[in-house]
Amino acid sequence: MRLGKLLGLAGLAGVAAGGAVLARNERQRRAYTPDDVRSRLHERHAALTAVPEPVPPAELVAGRSHRLARLLRRS
Fold this sequence. Notes:
This protein is an all-alpha fold. It has helices at about 1-30, 35-50, 55-60, 65-75.
């Protein structure tokens, strides 16, 4: 009987802690102004559309077990 009460209280504490975490995250999310959201989205878009620099062939050949390096050494 005592173990059941202890497990029930532990479950109740877990639910309360989870609700508190969710409420805190929701408050942080709603704290952004529309301009903040817009600027963050523009930054993320710019980062995703940036063209990465090509890797020099010397770096590809450096790893012996790298599959592409083996193909480049053959040619």
